[in-house]
Structure formats: structure tokens, C-alpha cells
Amino acid sequence: MNITLYSITSFSIILLFSLILSIQDIKKLEVSIHFQWVSIFAALICHLIFAREGMWIYIISSMICGTFYFAVRKITKNKLGPADVWFGFFQGLFLIPRLIPFCFIIEDVVALIVINKKFGKKPFAFIPFMSIGLVACFIIQSIN
Description:
Radius of gyration: 15 Å
Number of helices: 6
Low-confidence stretches: none
């Protein structure tokens, strides 16, 4: 495990924005789009400062995550909110493409365990589960 200023800054950004966006999503079932843009901007600035050469892989990951959640949103007829799609872009900015499917699995398993009811009956905040998946996969990625 290599602890650098880059990994500490990245983890701090992840924790800060995941916590704030999760609380907003739990309280109101909606999240400020402007705050999500700030989170994405902060992630991009972090990469520009610390990892400019390898930044392209995280942009590709961001596009993969965002596109996946956008597709899920369309397939489920907008049951997944636009905030979840934007958080997907944020998620991808910190994960290598190889860990994205693992992140999706963690989110879904944790959501199924916590929610423990049939989907479609009642809306629930999904960003907290996305945050758990992101934090877990970022830690796994940092260890390797």
C-alpha cells in the first residue's frame, strides 16, 4: 500500500462528497446538481494536479459508470434518479475500469441487504449505497 498525497487527497474528496451527497439524498431523495458538478470538478482538479499523465483512464472509467447508470435509468423508466447518474460519473473518476463491475456488485448487495424489500414499491436513496461501493473499491484499489 502506497500512501501518497494524491491518495490522501482523492480519499478525502471521496469521503467529503459521498457523505454530503448521501445525506442530501437520504433527507430529500434529491441532490443539488450544482453540488454534484462541484464534486466532479474537484475530482478532475485532483487528477490534474497529481496524476495528469494517467488521468485519461479515470475519464474513461467515468464515462463507463455514467453511461451504465444512464442506461439503467432509461431501462427502468426513470426509477433511478439523475443524481445517481451524475454520482456515477463522480465514481468513475476514482476507479480503474477493472474495479467498476465489483463496485456495482457491492452497491447492489448492500442495497439488497439494507432495503430488504421488493423494488418498485417505494423510492429510496441509492447514493449512500453507491458511496459504500466507491469507498470499498477505492480502498481495494489503493491496497493493490
